[in-house]
Amino acid sequence: MTSVQVDKQHDGNEAADEAPEEGYQRGLGNRQIQMIAIGGAIGTGLFLGAGKAISMAGPSIILAYAIVGLVIFFIMRALGELLMYRPVSGSFSEYAREFLGPFVGFVTGWTYWLFWVVTGITEVTAAATYVQYWNKGIPQWAAALVFTVALFGINLISVKIFGELEFWFSMVKVTAIIGMILIGLGVITLGFSDAGDTASFANLWSHGGFFPKGIGGTLMTLQIVMFAFLAVELVGVTAGEATNPKKVLPKAINTVPWRIGLFYIGALIIILSVVSWTAFKPGVSPFVAAFQQIGLPAGAGIVNFVVLTAALSSANSGMYSTGRMLRDLALNGQGPKFFTKLSKNGLPTWGTGVSVAMMLFGVYINYQWPGDAFNYVVSFATISGMWAWIVILASQLRYRAKANRGELPESEFKAPGSPYTSIFALAFIAMVIVMMGADPDARISLYAAPLWALILGVGYLCIKRRDAALAAGTAAQEASAKDAKS
């Protein structure tokens, strides 16, 4: 949706229950949106990355997840308020353009696109390595190629097929976590299995206390925990293709607290009760450790299958979001015009195709030269993902101020406690970024940011020099929208 269309929407008093027309097909139903929201909040950060966080903080990692979970809820409610004001597929890129200026919208759209391209590269590569758990004879490049082509083909069929695939990917993750919780509860309360004699909730405080590494150890894990929630905002990109965004999206966002409570905090409480935190090491999945302690030899295979589906789910989401972001940029004159075109099924095939080509090239580079240079690019995904959260919060604060002054219609889904909750979330993110700079392992995430900002600055100046109206996203975009529908 272009800035011109936004003005017409406000001037024409568009019905509150109608989403703006963007040319997409509304093929994502409530069941699929709910699972996309769940899948965005559950990734390899829990199944694999939590082992390092546990070794750094001990049982207090549970508190870290609770605090970060609260911040994520504030972010999602801020996004929800914006979505109910104007549900569009461009989502936070559109809101940045409207409330923070055309340059911020330009930066946000291209940065989020890069985030998912880089994430897609890493996730497809990871999926290929997970396959070798069962068959080491399959070349990594071949598995990565098959996965990429298959997911691309699915994204070319229809948005409904994409949603259905995400539904089942998320179902695998949810089933694995619930299964772990139920088995763990049985071990703790009934005492069966090899872990029956040692499993106890007392493990949460009997090995050095709840804060065995001190408050400082817990604080240093906040960045790891934050990274585990990257992509939770993806549900906002689905707004332009949800069957009933005014009803479905608030419901999905309001489930964030119990999803975090059950799938993160609940699972960690059980795992740390079954296995003492002292047994965890970086690089070892806490789920694998718990299954081994219980005495389930198939545990490692189960977790490997789960992280495989999690990686494919992330790559699938990346293909979906990159095409929508490129089309949003193009519709506002901030990207190549051919990205505006849609297929007969209402899919941005050009944007998705170019993004997938980038992913394939990245997989090849990763295979040929898996050195530090590529790791620097991959690490940039973390800071670029957090940029989207910053933009969401800043846009919501500007929107709420305008709505309070009567300049814009009130949202039907106001963020509770705003503006204080949004300001708190922004301050929390700033603190985490500072901590990233203090951590040698995470510091490289910040190195690529200035270079990317320079590239975007030069790109924007080139567009503005060619056509200032296009750079601002304020004129000539209606022609692009007509071309996209033709």
TrEMBL record:
This protein's GO CC annotations: plasma membrane
Region of interest called Disordered, as start-end residue ranges on this chain: 1-23
Major localization listed first in the record, in broad terms: membrane
Subcellular location: Cell membrane
Domain Amino acid permease/ SLC12A: 33-467
InterPro entries in the record: AA-permease/SLC12A_dom (IPR004841), Amino_acid_permease_CS (IPR004840)
Bilayer topology annotation: Multi-pass membrane protein
UniProt signal peptide: none
Residue ranges of the TM segments: 35-54, 60-79, 99-121, 141-162, 174-195, 215-239, 260-280, 300-320, 347-367, 373-397, 418-438, 444-463
GO biological process, one term: amino acid transport
The keyword Cell membrane is assigned to this record: yes
Annotated keywords: Amino-acid transport, Cell membrane, Membrane, Transmembrane, Transmembrane helix, Transport
Pfam families: AA_permease
Family membership noted in the UniProt record: Belongs to the amino acid-polyamine-organocation (APC) superfamily. Amino acid transporter (AAT) (TC 2.A.3.1) family.
Name the record gives this protein: Amino acid permease
Organism whose genome encodes this protein: Streptomyces auratus AGR0001
